[in-house]
Amino acid sequence: LVIIRVGSGAQKKEFHVHRGLLRHHSIYFQDVIRNSSDHEVDLPHEDPGVFDVIFWVAGTSTTANGRIPLSFHYIVELSFFADSKGMEMLRNATLTLFYRKCVQEWRSVHHFASKVYSGTIPQSPLRRYLVDFTAET
């Protein structure tokens, strides 16, 4: 197991994650774990809530009534985290969550455009989806 400390100060949270899972799902963690002799990784500038959501998405992504309990904000932040850590499967899962949330709530998400555009590259699937969804609705 690898101990991952996420956040700083009172918000700091510790996660115990299997080393093989981290290396399999993230090019970032492949490099960090390969170059580290200890079993600890500190991510003081990341949001512990986003890291919590990673484990939630890996298990189940809806509540008992089929609703997605995550806010659009958290889904976007999770997508940014996945991109920054080379976690392609997680990034794809966040795109699916974003789509399903849009369909469930059927409301405009244009207020996320500047956040998505400032946090993604032009070829980003999230950016392309946001443009397509906005154009369609």
UniProtKB/TrEMBL annotation:
Domain of life: Eukaryota
InterPro entries: SKP1/BTB/POZ_sf (IPR011333)
The protein, known as: BTB domain-containing protein
Organism: Lentithecium fluviatile CBS 122367
Lineage: Eukaryota, Fungi, Dikarya, Ascomycota, Pezizomycotina
